[in-house]
């Protein structure tokens, strides 16, 4: 029996109202995003559980209860629905049949359609085009002929990306010569892809937007993002852009959330070209790495907002309490042993440290982050960078 048939066989109506503490709510996915959601829910008085593959994951370490199993396993989903009155996700790659099955029994936000669109680049870009939301020119690549068409119509260089399962730079190849296009597609397994025109951008921005069940939407100020090896390295808020660009970015994020009819937290990532044009790059239907600094820097964090939207509560205030900078702590920092936490904290007592409880450090793996608040966002960034350098400085 297929997974879809198994899920669709057992039908029941799910609820859609308001869930108040101390009710039990849950998250599918047990990484750092799930961990910070659970911590926010507990602070608000909820019992918070997680669907996790093991009991040692970052989210399971802090959860009130844990259901063990993969996210598309029917017995595990039954157990999750038995305990959680409202259920959300920390990543987009949860199967649509699984979410539809859950939504007939419990409140599930965001809904399966939002995730179904955003977990596939072809569907996501078709959605953006259909709703007139600016984005880079692109073409589908599913055959050799479509690959040739993409090269001819988009020009070079272009980016070839797998339609599914790509994140932090995985599943994409730069093609700068027509002769290399076929080998690039082969390197991606000749699976369904999208080809995107190369965008000469000045900066990368992101807007975290929250939409409630009543359609109300709020958004944080745009953040300025810097990536290293395709992984987010730093975010500074507010981004150093003018008020017109900042409002255009927020308006585009509102348009995405409304067109999706999403309920919950979304992050819309943008390219800002040197000509001042905003192009949507990606949509993440969940809290985002670039929004971690809202824990200290905003009146209500992105995780507070995730709890509020999931439970049908009024949304919180997205206003900044202070400009801020966030810097990721990757497993590379552990290459020569445990980082020198005391050095960073002694050098700057204002540094806020978040570690995710991951047992093993690996290069490129997100182990935690630092946040610094400062009246000047560039000073906040400089302080955060100095704190990261202090983590690996060896004293004589």
TrEMBL record:
Alphabetical UniProt keywords: ATP-binding, Ligase, Nucleotide-binding, Purine biosynthesis
GO molecular function (one): ATP binding
EC number(s) per entry: 6.3.4.18
Family matches, as InterPro entries: ATP-grasp (IPR011761), ATP-grasp_carboxylate-amine (IPR003135), ATP_grasp_subdomain_1 (IPR013815), PreATP-grasp_dom_sf (IPR016185), PurK (IPR005875), PurK_C (IPR040686), PurT/PurK_preATP-grasp (IPR054350), Rudment_hybrid_motif (IPR011054)
Function of the molecule: Catalyzes the ATP-dependent conversion of 5-aminoimidazole ribonucleotide (AIR) and HCO(3)(-) to N5-carboxyaminoimidazole ribonucleotide (N5-CAIR).
Subunit annotation: Homodimer.
Family of the protein in this entry: Belongs to the PurK/PurT family.
Official protein name in the record: N5-carboxyaminoimidazole ribonucleotide synthase
Gene: purK
């Amino acid at each position: 029996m297929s997974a879809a048939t198994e899920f669709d066989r057992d039908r029941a109506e799910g609820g859609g109202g308001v869930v108040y503490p101390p009710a039990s709510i849950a998250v599918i996915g047990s990484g750092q995003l799930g961990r910070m959601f659970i911590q926010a829910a507990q602070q608000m008085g909820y019992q918070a559980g997680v669907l996790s593959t093991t009991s040692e994951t970052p989210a399971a370490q802090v959860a009130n209860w844990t259901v063990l199993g993969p996210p598309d396993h029917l017995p595990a989903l039954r157990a999750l629905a038995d305990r959680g009155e409202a259920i959300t996700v920390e990543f987009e790659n949860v199967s649509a049949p699984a979410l539809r099955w859950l939504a007939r029994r419990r409140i599930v936000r965001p809904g399966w359609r939002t995730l179904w669109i955003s977990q596939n680049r072809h569907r996501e870009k078709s959605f953006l085009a259909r709703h007139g939301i600016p984005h880079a020119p692109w073409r589908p690549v599913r055959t050799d002929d479509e690959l040739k068409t993409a090269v001819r119509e988009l020009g070079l260089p272009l980016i070839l990306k797998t339609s599914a399962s790509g994140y932090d730079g995985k599943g994409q190849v730069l093609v700068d010569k027509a002769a290399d296009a076929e080998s690039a597609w082969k390197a991606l397994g000749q699976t369904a892809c999208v080809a995107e025109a190369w965008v000469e951008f000045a900066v990368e921005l992101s807007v975290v937007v929250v939409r409630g069940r009543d359609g109300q939407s709020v958004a944080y100020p745009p953040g300025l993002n810097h990536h290293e090896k395709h992984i987010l390295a730093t975010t500074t808020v507010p981004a150093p852009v003018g008020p017109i660009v900042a409002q255009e970015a927020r308006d585009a994020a509102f348009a995405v959330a409304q067109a999706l009819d999403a309920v919950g937290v979304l992050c819309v990532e943008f390219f800002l070209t040197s000509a001042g044009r905003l192009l949507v790059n990606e949509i993440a239907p969940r809290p985002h790495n670039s929004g971690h600094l809202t824990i200290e820097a905003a009146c209500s964090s992105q995780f507070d907002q995730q709890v509020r939207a999931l439970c049908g509560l009024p949304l919180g205030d997205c206003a900044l309490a202070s400009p801020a900078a966030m810097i990721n702590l990757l497993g590379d920092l552990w290459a020569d042993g445990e980082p020198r936490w005391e050095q960073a904290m002694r050098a700057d007592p204002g540094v806020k440290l978040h570690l995710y409880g991951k047992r093993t450090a690996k290069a490129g793996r997100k182990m935690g982050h630092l946040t610094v608040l400062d009246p000047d966002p560039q000073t906040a960034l400089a302080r955060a960078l100095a704190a990261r350098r202090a983590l690996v400085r060896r004293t004589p």
